[in-house]
Design a protein that fits this description.
The chain is built from seven helices and eight strands, in the order ααββββββαββαααα. With about 180 residues, the protein is α+β, with helices and mostly antiparallel strands. It has a single domain, classed as Jelly Rolls, CATH 2.60.120. The strands form two sheets. It has a four-stranded antiparallel beta sheet with strand order 1-8-3-6. Strands 2-7-4-5 form a four-stranded antiparallel beta sheet, with no helix packed on it. About 25% of the residues are buried.
């Protein structure tokens, strides 16, 4: 849920409500492809539940993502096709927000845009920092620090204050979108 912490920590309740109302829940079965490497994607996705695997043709499996993670963010920013394939590892659900809807909202609501882009910058910076130790280790032939480098995989201190509220916002959105199974 790391990327979701940044997004839901920066956005306000009304922003999250807009995402919920303007997104579409997409249910995936095990093996379903959500994003295909090299094929343009027209949406940003928030993983609501389940596990997805991120892989490339050249490297194979490069990451596993779960609830709260954001997918399609890099292609949203630079409008190029994705560099990886995302496939459901088991049953999963995502909230799909089209680039068109999101772009329109960003253009017409500058405060939402400022919060959204700040969150995007924070989690892309965090993602880059997480890759630095592995990249340095690979170049030197050493093993990467499993804790994620000098910060030990910790969340930026500026984000910690928003952590509880971010989790609560995400949980509220998931409950509103997906009914709990009946016993």
């Amino acid at each position: 849920m790391r990327t979701g912490l940044f997004l839901f920590g920066q956005l306000r309740d009304e922003d999250v409500a807009w995402l919920r109302l303007n997104g579409e829940v997409q249910v995936l079965s095990s093996g379903d492809v959500l994003i295909e490497q090299g094929i343009w994607v027209d949406a940003v996705f928030i993983v609501l539940h389940g596990t997805l695997r991120v892989s490339t043709i050249a490297s194979g499996l490069i990451a596993t993502v779960a609830a709260g993670e954001i997918l399609g963010d890099v292609s949203f920013v630079d409008s190029r096709p994705p560099r990886a394939t995302v496939r459901a590892a088991a049953a999963a659900a995502v909230l799909r927000i089209t680039k068109q809807h999101l772009s329109e909202r960003l253009e017409t609501h500058p405060l939402f845009a400022a919060r959204f882009y700040r969150a995007l910058a924070l989690f892309l910076a965090d993602r880059l920092r997480a890759t630095e130790p592995a990249t340095a280790a690979a170049a030197s032939g050493a093993a990467a620090d499993p804790a994620g480098g000098p910060m030990g995989g910790e969340v930026d201190p500026l984000v910690l204050d928003e952590l509880t509220q971010a989790g609560a916002r995400f949980d509220t959105m998931v409950r509103a979108l997906i009914q709990a199974p009946q016993a």
